[in-house]
Amino acid sequence: MRQNEAPTAITISQGTFPSEPLSYSAHASRLLHCILWTKLVQLASLLIGPRTRKGNLSIAFAIPFVLLGTGCMHRPLQIKQNYVLETTSGFSLLVPSVSPKTVDGDFQTSLVKLTDEKRSIRSTLPRQCSIKGSTFSFGPDDPTLPNQWLVKSPSVQGWSKHGGEINLGADWSQFTHDLHSLDDLGCFPRGESLAAVTRAIVERMPLPASESLLFFYSFGGGGFANLATGMQVKVERPLFENNGRDKAAGSYRGSLVAQYEVVPTSQTGVALRLSKTENRRSGRKLGAEASAVFGLSARFATRPMLRLFLQSLNDNNSLRSPILIGGSNVADLDTATYQIERNSSGGCPVGLPTAIDCISFGEKTAVSLLASVWINGRLLYRPLGTTVGYMIETLSKSGSEQARALETISVRRPLTTGGYAAVNFPKTLASANQVILLNGDRLSWKH
Description:
This protein is of the alpha+beta class. It is built from 12 helices and 22 strands. Among the domains are: 24-70; 99-203, no CATH class; 224-368, no CATH class. The radius of gyration is 23 Å and the shape is globular.
């Protein structure tokens, strides 16, 4: 999916992010840590003020040293692999530089490494730890090594020849559902989240560039996305006199606004943390409607897996309001998703699994889902589907500046196993517009 327009960026920090070989979840945790330290030190600078007279060291000058001590200053990024944008027969693919173990015509088999073997307790894998599908297959490389797996997927040739024939949404949904069954069987290393397993698989396969959001967040034709650490959810509801009954232009009294950060709760889950509000007092008279805006953190505190449905049209052309569901396993989420997609009322259907919590925001409320990206040292939030080309176009003040950006741009993508991948593509705006930004991506270029 693509977004033609994006809202103004919300700048959270102008710091940088360390590049030790951390896992992806550790990257996200350190990101939140560095933002907090930057804000605290900047606040101290404002409260105490510079003291350059009488030879005292100013707080502003001391900030870099404090951040250095907390590990939040910039260090060179550790590049472990590359992705290359390849276009064949009009089909654009992001191809990892890690060579597949075997290539057999239209399919290839690649090695997937999960958690370090030393952290794995199981000595052997349970039986039936394999998936055999028409498009994607998965199984152990060695039954005695629960951290090494093989994934079979279309090769570059296979995508180029048959990509248009594959029912990608259905095939990938079935594959991720089967991965959940393997997780229930105890096939994966203890403490390894299903999201991390899925991402590790995705990082080893050539993928259609336009479907990046489907593979990483299940964001496709269904209009929903699985929330990941580092994302941001923004909820806005307009305020009118008489609790919304009078919607004349003169009765508008602003909007209730709640901004949530998606943060890790454990190695295997996420939660919503309320980070900013507007007009919270004014919304008290709305009761439950205000709770739908400001109370999501408490509402979903015990639901480590969250899925957001953006506002869209149902199959019968009725409007589906934004919906947030939370659960503890993929099977319940998928069951609830099936029911929501077939619910003509556009809200939370009756009969959802008891372990699922669901909230429908209603047609009056707008909900936005944003991904965090670092651009030239600044942390910004952009809608899912924003491309590298869009960012270059919107942040360049002239044609020459845009050309300079294309010539010098680098794109770095965090890897599940730690470190980063360099995303390489022809230095043209058309190619840059085919690279969709993912959560945690780092962009830099010369002006």
